[in-house]
Amino acid sequence: MTKIYVYDTTLRDGSQGEGISFSVEDKLKIAARLDELGVDYIEGGWPGANPKDMEFFQRAKKLAWQRARLAAFCRTRKPGQRAEEDENLLAVLASGARIATVVGKSWDLHVLQALQTELEENLRMISDSVRFLVDQGLEVIYDAEHFFDGFKADPDYAVATLKAAAAAGATWLVLCDTNGGCLPDEIQRAVKQVRKELDAPLGIHTHNDGDLAVANTLAAVAAGCRQVQGTINGYGERCGNANLCSVIPNLELKLGYTCLPPGNLRLLTDVSRYVSEIANVAQPNNMPFVGKSAFAHKGGVHVSAVLKETTTYEHIPPEKVGNGRRVLVSELAGASNLRYKAAEMGIDLKGDSASAVIQKVKELEHQGYQFEGAEASLELLLKKATGQYRQHFEIECYKVLVEQRKNEEAVSEAIIKLRVGDQVVHTAAEGNGPVNALDNALRKALEEIYPVIGQMRLTDYKVRVLDEKAATSAKVRVLIESRDRGDSWSTVGVSTNIIEASWKALLDSMDYALLKKEQRGGVGRE
Asked: By C-alpha distance, which of 170, 54, 51, 35 is closest to 101?
């Protein structure tokens, strides 16, 4: 099978995305995971642009890399300056990187307007910069910035910039759709024309401003490019870069190319989510191949078919990219959905009980509940409906007080009375707001009896207004995410009273923690 070389620029181009900033430690961690994934090149940054990238290269060269080769990014020399005196090029040498990716202008508009120099001088800038680095023993990849726009404006000049780089010793010529506005047929025509005029290996670098970066990358490969540049999760300036999490599986699974070492494609979902966590950017659930919803099935007809034959509604087996199948339960669900989820949770759903539970789910979702993102609440509901639920505690009553004194912050206090078996617990606690006070009071009441409660914590709290026109009397849905040492779960509550909605979700969260402990070996009154 034909090899396609993967060039990852998450650490450089990806970091230019709005809201993304990687520390040196972040970059080293991500680079290690990319190396484990098996990409061929990792663009570590621009050592001539900032000290952080220089530090990355200095530290990275001391590490052992399994497969990936680190590339340092730089521009061509400045107009009228000698390459050996250009600080930007000298910084690449100082970084210790053995591969340099040199970006140069291929659009006459940029040469004349942005650089404000002559077309012939730009060709010399490309040639001098590439040759200088090659003479220093570096492999040079030439990125032809704005190539496709330049090709449309003046194809002869755009190709001349490539010829200048190739003649100076560049090993790869990468054609860039820097503005991200080209269409796949435009990409293919240009690549085919370049192949007629040059024998050098070609690469493709696309941006996503027309939502076509992946399609344009695939079109370029079909036309003869053998290196693909992109970022994990499509991070990048403006609308982002080509998403390697879509490019790679499409090339391997749909087009029969080899991109990663055998078996490594299954690491893709974990790498995508890992980079998302480091970047502190939530991964879109509907991201193809690696998203949480990429293989999620909600409609009853869909689920019924998938349970019989997965290819009815899945274009690939999710395991091939390290993802998994999910079946959602909602007002659109049928008996197949519920039986699948029940079996997944180890719940025996017999006879007509599925229909009764589905009706209950539909009634609750009509009230505003949503169980797609609150599977812990769904499991509790299923256990209650099938008689497999054991009550761990019973709430007698609760009260929340908020006191605001002049020139002081408001103080919240929750008072709770609950029953565990024949024991009644009556306690109070303060908190940073009424929900936190309720959380503290409930923990205080339960921890002495169930110490496992002390091991869990709330990690997220979301409030969604369901009918905005009702203003402050609107119904709200509260989603709470909780975590213990080895698991996380989400619960839901709905009410026109935000405190009551939060309380319902909070009770389910504590109850589920006890349920999980029970399943792992019994709760008991410890």
From this structure: 170
Q: How distant, in Å, are the alpha carbons of 12, 330, 379, 487 from that of 325? A: 33, 16, 18, 19
The residue among 394, 410, 391 whose CA lies nearest residue 402 is 410
Read off the pLDDT of residues 429-488 as tens digits, 9 standing for 90 and up.
999 899 999 999 999 999 989 999 998 988 889 898 887 777 777 889 999 999 887 788
Q: By the 8 A CB rule, do 201 and 174 touch? A: no
The CA dihedral of 6, 12, 14, 19, to the nearest 10 degrees, is 170
The H-assigned helical ranges of 21-168 are 24-37, 51-60, 87-95, 108-109, 119-135, 147-153, 155-167
Token pair 């040199």 in the structure block, residue? 102
Task: Report d(CA 341, CA 338) in Å as an integer.
Answer: 5
**Residue 378, token pair as written in the block:** 């769904």
The fold of the 5-261 domain, in CATH, is TIM Barrel (3.20.20)
Do 324 and 304 form a contact (C-beta atoms < 8 A)?
no
- Mark residue 137 as left, alpha or beta (left: phi above 0; alpha: psi -120 to 50; beta: remaining): left
Nearest CA to 273 out of 259, 284, 261, 265 is that of 284
DSSP codes, 361-380: HHHHHHHT---TT-HHHHHH
Q: Dihedrals φ, ψ of 52, to 5°?
A: -60, -45
Strand blocks (E) in 231-327: 296-297, 326-327
CA quadruple 191, 197, 198, 199: dihedral positive or negative?
positive
Q: What is the CATH number of domain 394-519?
A: 3.30.160.270
pTM of the predicted structure, to 2 decimals: 0.76
- The answer to whether 479 and 464 are in contact (CB under 8 A) is yes
Which of the 8 DSSP states describes residue 422?
T
β-strand pairing of 5-8 with 227-230? parallel
Helices (H), 50-116: 51-60, 87-95, 108-109
Task: Give the separation between CA 176 and CA 163, rounded to whole angstroms.
Answer: 15
What are the tens digits of pLDDT across the range 224-235?
999 999 999 999
Question: What single-letter DSSP state applies at residue 241?
Answer: B
Residue 352: other Cβ atoms inside 10 A = 9
Sorted by where each begins, the domain ranges of the chain are 5-261, 296-385, 394-519
* Number of residues that make up the chain: 526
Q: Rounded to an integer, what distance in angstroms lies between the CA atom of residue 413 and that of residue 404?
A: 12
